[in-house]
Design brief:
The chain has about 230 residues and is of the alpha/beta class. It is built from 10 helices and 8 strands. The protein has a 5-stranded parallel sheet with strand order 2-6-1-7-8. Strands 3-4-5 form a 3-stranded antiparallel sheet, with no helix packed on it. α2 packs across α10, α3 packs across α4 and α4 packs parallel to α6. The structure holds 2'-deoxycytidine-5'-monophosphate.
C-alpha cells in the first residue's frame, strides 16, 4: 500500500476526540463511549505518563528535552486487557500516581516529545473506529475527526472528584494540595507553546461540573448519532 492510499484508508476510520483538563473524567467517558460503539480507545495521557516514568527510571527530572524525546521514541509499551506494561513490567497503577502525572505534564511541554509520540498515537486509528482522549486530540493528532468533544468541569469539582477517587483507593490526599496541583497543571497544559490544551474551533463543549458520567456518555453518543446521520454511515 503506498503512502497516499494509507492516508485515505486511515481517514476513513471514524474518530471521536475527547479533550479536556486533568480530572475532567475524559478517560472514563472515552472508554465507555468506545465500549458502547465497539471501537478502540486511545488514552494519550498514558503515553505521556509512560514517558515520564521512563524519564524518572533513567534518573531524569524532565528538564532535558532530548533525553525525554529519546525515551519517548524508545518506549516499549504494551496495552491490553486493562493492563499497561513498560518493558514488560506492569505499570498500570504506577503511572497514575500524582507525581508521575505532574512529571508527564512537564515532559509533555517539550515539542520533541510530542513529535516522538505523534505517529504512535495516530497508529491507534483502526477500524471500526477510535475514541481518543487527551489535550490535543482534536487540534493536532486527529484534526479531521468527525466529532470533537471538549469536556470541561469546574476545577473545584475536579479536585473533589480526584480526592474521592484517591480515598476510594485507600490513598490519603489533602484536598487543598490537590486543588493547587490541578491549577498548576491546568496552567501548564493551557499556556504551553506547543499543542496547548484548547478546544478545537469545531469542538462541542460539554461541562460535566453538574452532570454524571452516564449523562455525559449519553450526550456524546447522541452527538455521534446526529453526526453520523448527517454524514452517512461510518
Ligand atoms: O490525561 P492525563 O492526566 O493522564 O495526562 C497526563 C499529562 O500528559 C497531562 O498533564 C498533560 C499531558 N498530555 C498532553 O500533553 N497531551 C495529551 N494528548 C495527553 C496528555
Amino acid at each position: 500500500m503506498n503512502a497516499a492510499s494509507f492516508e485515505r484508508d486511515a481517514s476513513a476510520v471514524p474518530v471521536i476526540t475527547i479533550d479536556g483538563p486533568t480530572a475532567s473524567g475524559k478517560g472514563t467517558i472515552a472508554q465507555r463511549v468506545a465500549d458502547h460503539l465497539g471501537w478502540h480507545a486511545l488514552d494519550s495521557g498514558a503515553l505521556y505518563r509512560l514517558t515520564a516514568l521512563a524519564v524518572r527510571q533513567a534518573g531524569g527530572d524532565g528538564s532535558d528535552e532530548s533525553q525525554a524525546a529519546h525515551l519517548a521514541r524508545q518506549l516499549d509499551v504494551q496495552f491490553g486487557a486493562g493492563l499497561i506494561r513498560l518493558d514488560g513490567q506492569d505499570v498500570t497503577h504506577l503511572i497514575r500516581q500524582e507525581a508521575i502525572g505532574n512529571l508527564a505534564s512537564r515532559v509533555a511541554a517539550w515539542p520533541a516529545v510530542r513529535t516522538a509520540l505523534l505517529a504512535r498515537q495516530q497508529d491507534f486509528r483502526q477500524m471500526p473506529g477510535l475514541v481518543a482522549d487527551g489535550r490535543d486530540m482534536g487540534t493536532v493528532v486527529f484534526p479531521d475527526a468527525p466529532l470533537k468533544i471538549f469536556l470541561d468541569a469546574d476545577v473545584v469539582v475536579r479536585a473533589e472528584r480526584r480526592h474521592k477517587q484517591l480515598r476510594d483507593k485507600g490513598i490519603s490526599a489533602n484536598l487543598d494540595d490537590l486543588l493547587n496541583d490541578l491549577r498548576l497543571r491546568d496552567a501548564r497544559d493551557r499556556d504551553r507553546a506547543h499543542a496547548p490544551l484548547v478546544a478545537a474551533a469545531d469542538a462541542m463543549t460539554i461541562d460535566s461540573s453538574h452532570i454524571g458520567v452516564d449523562q455525559v456518555v449519553d450526550q456524546v453518543l447522541d452527538l455521534w448519532l446526529d453526526r453520523r446521520s448527517a454524514h452517512g454511515p461510518a
